[in-house]
Amino acid sequence: MNWANLFFDLFAVIVVILSVITITRRNAVHSAIALMMAFVGLAAIYVILGAELLAAIQVLVYAGGVMALMLFVIMSVKSDEQNQVKQTHAQTLIAAFVGVLFVVEIGVTVWMGFLYKNTGALAKSQLAAMGNTEALGTVLFTKFLFPFEVASVLLLAAMVGAIVLAKYKLER
Amino acid sequence: MTTVLPVPNLAAIGPEILVTVLACGLLLVDLFIPKDRKRAVGILALAGTVVTALFTMRYWNYSATTFSGMFVVDNFAVIFKEVFLFATAITILISLRYLEIEKVSLGEYYALMLFCTLGMMVMVSAADLVVIYIGLETMALSVYVLSGFMRFNVKSSEAALKYFLVGVFISGILLYGIALTYGVVGSTNLNAIAETIKLKGLKDNPVLMIAMFLLAAGFGLEIAMAPFHFWAPDVYEGSPTPVTAFISVAPKAAAFAALIRVFVVGIGLMAPHWQVLLWVIAALTMTIGNVTAALQSNVKRMLAYSSIAHAGYMLLGILAANTTGLAGVAFYFFAYAFMNMGAFGVIILLRREGIVGDEVDDFKGLAHTNPMAALLMVVFLLSLTGIPPTAGFIGKFLLFSAAIKAGFYWLVVIAVLNSVVSLFYYFRIAQAMYMGEAPDSSIPRPQGAPSLTVAIAIVGILTLFFGIYPHHLVELAKASVTTFIPFL
Fold it and tell me: What ipTM, to 2 d.p.?
C-alpha cells in the first residue's frame, strides 16, 4: 500500500460522490459546479496514473472550456424558476439499459486487462524510454505531422465561420 | 532521447500550400477593402484559384508518397483537385453579383470557400483514414457556414443548422467506423489495412463488416445517398444558390474520391461484401431521387433530388470496380460540374430585386425574355438527362457500360428506367420556358451580371464540347485510375 494507491482511491471516491451530486441537484448551477469539481478530480487521477498531459487537457478543455460553455447556456436561459426546474426521469428505462451496457463493457475491458498480462506492453516500454507527453509530442510531430498541420487550418476555418455567423447578425 | 524530425516532400503538397496561403491572404486583404467593394476580394480569390488550377496541372504524372505514407499525389488525386478548383472558380463567378443582391457580400465568403477546397484536396490525396477524416471536417465546417451565409434569412439558417446537426452525427459514425477498422487491423493507413486483411485473411471478419457499413454511411452523407439524403433538399433550397451549386458538386466529388480510395485500396478484398451493399444503396438512391424529384415545384429542391439520383448513377462506377467504372466516375464529375453548375447559374440569373426565381413558374416565358439563357438551360437539362450530344450522355454511357461489363444487368435496367423518369421532370422546366406565358412586362427582365453570363457560357460550351469530343477527357480519366489497377 503506497501513497499513490491511497490517493487514487481517495480521488475515485470523491469523483463518484461529485458525479452523484451532479445528477441529483435540482439547481442546474449546482449540478454544473459539482460536475466541474468531478472533472478536476478526474484530472488528479490522471496525474497519479502518470498521464500529466491528459490531466492538463482535462483541466483546460473540460473544467475550463466545456464548463464555461455550459454555464453560459444555463445563464442565457436563466430565470429563477427555470433554474429550479425538477429534472425529469421519463427516460429512466433507456438510461438504465445504456448504463448497464456501459458497465458490462467496462467490466469486460478490465477483465481482459487481467487476462492478458502483457496488455499495453508496447506503451509501457515506450514510457520507460520517455515520458507520456514526450511520446505523444514525438508521434504528433513525426508520423502525424500532416493531419496535425491540417487540423490547425480546420480550427482557423471554424473560427472564421463562427465569427461570420455571430458577428454580422449583431450588426443588423 | 533525441528524435529525428522527418523531412517531408513539401513539393508534393504545393497546391495545398498555395490554397492555404491564398485563403489566409484573402482574410488579411479583406481588412483593407471597404464594405461596398468586397467584390475585389472575390476577383482576387478567382485569380488565385485559376493560378492554383494551372499549377496543379503540373502534377499530372507526378507521383509521390510523403508524410509517412499519409499523403499521396497520383493522377487520380490531381484530376479530382482540378474538379474542385474548377467548381470553386465557377462558384466565385456566379457568387459575385448574387451576394450583392442578397446584401451579404463579405470577404470571408471567399476565404471559407477556399478552406473548403483545401479540405477536399486533402481528402482526395489522403492515404490514411485519419487524414481523410481531418480533410472531411475542414470541408464540412466551411460548408456549414457557407450554407447559412444569409444569416438573416430563416431558410438559410435552417439549412445551416440541419446540415450541421446531421453532419456532426454522421461524422461520429464515420469515426466509429475508423476506430473499428483500427481495432481489427491495427493501422489507419489504407495500404497497411489492405496488407493486413490479405495476410491474416480478415476479409470476412464481422467487425470489419460493421466498420465497412459505418464508413459507407460516413461518406454517404456528403454523397447524399439514400438513406442519408434527407438533409439535401432542405439544405439545397435554403442555402444561397451559388453555395447550393457548389455543395451539389464539389463535396460530393470529394466524398466519392475518398470512398473509392477506402473501398478499392483499403478494403478492396472485401469487394464481394461491399458490392452487395452498394447495389442496394445505388438502386434505392436512384429511385428515391428521381421519383421524388418529379413531385417538386421548386427548382432548387428538384435539382437537389436529381443530384441524389446522380449520386446513384455514379455508385455504379464504384460498384463495377473496373477501370471503365472508376474512370467513368472521374469523367462524370467533370460533366456533372459543368451541367449542374450551369443549371444553378440560370436559377441565379432569374434572381432579381423582389423575385427569388427558383420556382418552375419563374421559368415561364424565359425563351422570350432571355432566349440565350433558355437555350443553355435546355443544354444543361439534356445533359442531366443523359441525351447526346452532351457530356452527361458520355458520362452515363461510361458508367452503364462499366456496370454491364461487371455483370450488373438488373441495376443498369433500373438506372435506364430512372433516366426515363428524369426526362419527365427536367422537361417540365423546358416546357415552362418555351411554352409558358411570359410574365407581364412590369417585372424586370432577367439579365445576368457579366461574371454570371461568362460562367454560364463557359460551362455551357464545355458541356457541348465534351459531349462531341469526349475522347481526350476520357483518356485523362482512364489514365487517372491506373493507381487502382493492382487492387482491381
Answer: 0.90
